[in-house]
Amino acid sequence: MKDTRATAGTPTLFTLTTGPVNCYPEVLSAIGQPVLYDYDPAFLAQYETVVLKLQTALGVSTIPVILQGEPVLGLEAAAHSLIAPGDTVLNLVSGVYGAGYGEWLRPRAQAFHEIRVPYDDVIDPAAVAAFLGAHPETAVVAVCHHDTPSGTINPIAEIGRVVRDHGALFVVDSVSAWAGMAIDIEAAGADLLVTGPNKCLGCPPALSILAVSDRAWAKMEANLAVPRGSILSILDWKEAWRAENPFPFTPSVAEINALNAALDLYLAEGPAAVWARHARTAEATRAGVKAMGLALWAAREEIASPTCTAVKLPEGVDETALRDRMKRDYGVVISSGRAETFNRLVRIGHMGPTAHPIYAVIALTALGGALAGLTGRNIDIGAGIAAAEAVMRG
Ligand SMILES: *Cc1c(COP(=O)(O)O)cnc(C)c1O
């Protein structure tokens, strides 16, 4: 009989990626609300409400900023706004995103330094302390919280303590970690934490979210090189949250409505419960991966992310062929590696609506089945599912 799947394939049934992720149904219906004029009093009130709700969700004492573009806008804006002429900058690199961020920091820094570790490992806070001891002039330190193309979590609370003791400003890319795991932004001393609603909050990619400390505002206000009247300006949006103040330009009305719905879901479920289901989904996935005889990418399981599981590609397996097979035969889409991690791992996302342990069973079935089909290897999918289910049963 002809295998019709070979030509047609299964439609995408499960998007188990590391972002963009599929959205919560409530978020999708919020996008379909009427798009109000941005100066309609109802939208002005809505914008203020969303920013204040966001402040609650972030757990910070300062008013956060929403920039009208997906999170790379927030990251680029942070580099432009926080680095002043003459600054010495330290970038911490444990993966592709951390390394990429250096390309925005370097041109603005008077002196630019990096601490690099292999991409299956994380930054050691003691190394940061040693560097700052030797370079007391360091003004800005940047780190990627969850370097998504490696699925590893940097110890930002410990790094932040070192940076705060030294007095430098601390920039954190927490795009794919925030809202998927516990993070006390102020205790970690993060002066500019950049995140977005398109990962663990289950929204489409369209907005940047920035938690800004008083120290960061002061630095930006004193910075002669700070962007103003620009898409990259953070300062332009400082007062825009108040209903009586103007917007610098038209905000993304539909996406603000979507963010509002996502924040309502997040706060109603309770952040701790949301983080717990992310952690349990990742734990179930890791247990299943190991039980099927596959290896995790992370050098040590303690540093593996609760929002993404990176699985080492077995020798000789082509990642594109593997992911194509998962899509064709199972309707499951997962993420590839990026740059240095491309064709060395695949990633199963546990973010927002897919951060429920039952999705581990789906991902493991598709991954194990596709690998067995491609390589002819005997993969014990049943053992993988049993191990995941044992975590679910608790
Ligand atoms: C997703 C993500 C971003 C935003 O970049 P995209 O263009 O959405 O991929 C930035 N940093 C990290 C760590 C991310 O995971």
Automatic annotation (TrEMBL):
UniProt keyword list: Aminotransferase, Pyridoxal phosphate, Pyruvate, Transferase
SUPFAM superfamilies to which the protein is assigned, alphabetical: PLP-dependent transferases
EC number(s) reported in the record: 2.6.1.30
Gene3D superfamilies: Aspartate Aminotransferase, domain 1, Type I PLP-dependent aspartate aminotransferase-like (Major domain)
N6-(pyridoxal phosphate)lysine, modified sites: K199
Residues bound to substrate: R347
GO molecular function terms noted in the UniProt entry: alanine-glyoxylate transaminase activity; L-serine-pyruvate transaminase activity; pyridoxamine-pyruvate transaminase activity
GO biological process assignments: glycine biosynthetic process, by transamination of glyoxylate
Aminotransferase class V domain: residues covered: 122-339
Cofactor requirement: pyridoxal 5'-phosphate
Pfam families per UniProt: Aminotran_5
Listed InterPro entries: Aminotrans_V_dom, PyrdxlP-dep_Trfase, PyrdxlP-dep_Trfase_major, PyrdxlP-dep_Trfase_small, SP_NH2Trfase/AEP_transaminase
Family note: Belongs to the class-V pyridoxal-phosphate-dependent aminotransferase family.
Family annotation (NCBIfam families): PyrdoxPyrvTramin
Protein name, as recorded: Pyridoxamine--pyruvate transaminase
